[in-house]
Amino acid sequence: MKTLHYALISLIFLVASCVNSEKQSESQVATESGYFDYSNSDDQFTGGIKMIPIETSKGTFNVWTKRVGNNPKMKVLLLHGGPGGTHEFFECFDGYFPNEEIEYVYYDQLDSYYSDQPNDSTLWTTEHFVEEVEQVRKALNMDETNFYLYGQSWGGILAMEYALKYQKNLKGLVISNMMASIPEYEKYAAKVLGPQLPPEIYKEIKAFEESEDYGNPRYTELVTQHYYPEHVLRIPLEDWPESIHRAFKHLNPNIYIFMQGYSEFGVTGSASLKGWDVSDRLKEINVPTLVIGATYDTMDPKYMEWMSGEVQNGRFLLCPKGSHLSQYDDQKNFFNGLIKFIKDVDSGDFDK
């Protein structure tokens, strides 16, 4: 019996030793990869944060960026929505990209919460923001060997505009939750999304819009309670992530209204994005491109699938459970598809 007893004890110690050895090996590999090693970086002191000076026609201003991880082959610059939103819409990326050792950079565009806010509407143009992205790219040493540009919503407009001018600098492009035509987006909102609301609710919303009474608390209540949980983030409002509440709290209404307008069903009045349309130029984009759409999005997923066929090297990712913020309400499909795209392009295995 003693012999059996000692044999069992020896077996237990052997198994435990193997498990510990495996864990130490995994830990050693993670450490040796250098992904989280900032010791040779000029932004170690700030934890990856850099205020990057941007030259404009109205002077030089600083924009806020924060790098997460190190990977010389895969660097993703995140363009937030709005206009006037913040990087906070992307904070859930922390739960996925580090495990894949994908370097990514949070970035607040000029006049967004963490960056300088000159509040000069002459700078609120797609042309300005394209040049701003280009200056950020240079400051972060991103180039055609490693630079992936991800744009969501308004950030998707910006990503498309950047690619149409500077695609020689890109390794990959991601257009997420944004159509290439504002007029087509408005048609989809009017013909499909609006009528999906309860008739009495939609009628009341349209009445406020026709009278341009956008500041009415009742209008805000109707849109927030009935439209947002269906098409912006398909989670009960009381369960929305803290980062999303923070992002909406920090959104700059001045630039948002100037470029987008007041309505959630299109671009209103003389807002500067009115009529924006690059659908006939998508065929000029030849870098590997991922277009992300979602079944319940504010953007037409069928149109976005069409976009993926218009660019020369496109792939479409549908988030079947997702809405406009599908990085939250359909995370499994969203991140699996996004990570696969980045790694396929990196390895040279990208196909449509």
Automatic annotation (TrEMBL):
List the signal peptide residues: 1-21
What PROSITE patterns does UniProt report for this protein, alphabetically? PROKAR_LIPOPROTEIN
InterPro entries named among the record's database cross-references: AB_hydrolase_1, AB_hydrolase_fold, AB_hydrolase_sf, Peptidase_S33, Pro_imino_pep
Any one Gene Ontology MF annotation carried by this entry is: hydrolase activity
Instruction: Provide the alphabetized UniProt keywords.
Output: Hydrolase, Signal
The AB hydrolase-1 domain, residue ranges:
76-330
Q: Which Pfam families match?
A: Abhydrolase_1
The entry sums up its family as follows: Belongs to the peptidase S33 family.
Q: Which PANTHER family match?
A: HYDROLASE, PUTATIVE (AFU_ORTHOLOGUE AFUA_2G14860)-RELATED, MONOACYLGLYCEROL LIPASE
Its protein name is: Proline iminopeptidase-family hydrolase
